Amino acid sequence: MPSGDRSTAVRVSNVALLGFGTVGSSVAKILCESSSPNLRLTHILNRNVARKKVDWLPRSVQWTEKIDDVLSSGADIIVEVMGGLQPSEDWIRRALASGKSVVTANKQLIARCGPELIGLAAQKKQHILYGASVAGGVPVISGLQMGLAGDELFKLRGILNGTCNYILSQMESNGVTFATALREAQKLGFAEADPTEDIDGLDARAKLTILARVGLHCNVQPDSIAAQSISAIEAIDFEYANQLGCTIRQISWAELQRKKEADGEENHDRLSAAVQPALVQLLSPLARVEGAQNLVVATGTYGGDTVFGGHGAGGHPTAVAVVSDILAIANAKQSGINHAEATVDKSPAVSSDYTGKHYLRFFVKDQPGIIAGLATILAKHKINIDSVLQKPGHPKSRLPFSITLEECKASLVGKALQQINALEFLVQPCLHLPIL
Hints:
Layout: E1 13-18, H1 22-33, E2 39-45, H2 49-52, E3 62-64, H3 67-71, E4 77-80, H4 88-97, E5 101-104, H5 107-123, E6 128-129, H6 140-147, E7 153-159, H7 162-174, H8 178-187, H9 196-199, H10 202-216, E8 226-227, H11 235-243, E9 246-260, E10 266-281, E11 293-300, E12 304-311, H12 315-334, E13 349-351, E14 355-364, H13 370-380, E15 385-389, E16 399-409, H14 410-420, E17 426-435
Parallel strand pairs: 1-2, 1-4, 2-3, 4-5, 5-6, 8-10, 10-13
Antiparallel strand pairs: 7-9, 7-11, 9-10, 11-12, 14-16, 14-17, 15-16
Helix pairs in contact: 1-12, 4-5, 5-10, 7-8, 13-14
């Protein structure tokens, strides 16, 4: 080879997999079937490897149950697809400290420890990428980091949990109860045996935390973001929502509130953020997301709305995102780029308060004066009623009806509901949802 061509020689990156479940096996299959000349799968770590071994992998791949075998090997890129906080965090820290780059799909870990791990990677001149941690195969993180880098983003809205979206879609289209839709989701593998993380918004909250850091440059912790369960939604709510030209979806949202200081300089001092079921207009792209798909809408000062959508879960879509990150690191190493350092320059106060329209749904024991009693309490808090909806044919012992409110702060509605929920004619606490 002429000396002038040596710089073009392909640098092979050795890849080690931590975890060989649904996502890990899909990553291995893509790596082994890929025509990329600069990636080589060398190690797989998993418990009970004797039961996990498959005959379609090259014999050169080394299987192990010991992390030290991986960390002492010639692997350049460690791929963590085990999930959970421990031992994943310790192993990723050790991998970075030993001079290896990392790709992970671990949303809870990145939500809680992302800035520290990114800082450690930069210190050790390595990379850590986590594109698969949000929205599976949808390239929303890379899109925010690079595709929209020229804009100034101030708002993110999204459907980030496929389980919740499947449940709500089934309730809407088939008129079934929440419990029935959940059982169907579990039967089809969309929901875990313990679905708490999904239906209570904890899964989506971790993803929103990551998006807020990447898209809005706000360093927040998941526990600072309010999360509301979808379990209180009933089939009647979809009927009322439809009369309002809306449907109901679990929405994750974050918006920077800008404040002008006395000297005229702009200061981002507050982030409004929450994960909650909400009424969304039928014409919104958020309303058209069906089944287990994900969608994110990023809003910028100059570019307006940009929509990212697609399959947010499953072995193959998530594996595509993981392998894309592996290739990005391998190409960076090939180009001599030591590391990519991400900066987060704001740590604002976080609030779930917002100003907007509101949907209230009640189940009551029918008696005279119910609307008057509710209106009196709302008026005391300077809240105006916009409409009242009631479908006939329900028993008077558990009569459903809904009230929509004109624009006001959510915190005001919360104070009013503290009084309303103590009223003797209520069969159960009022359901309060934002109307986006």
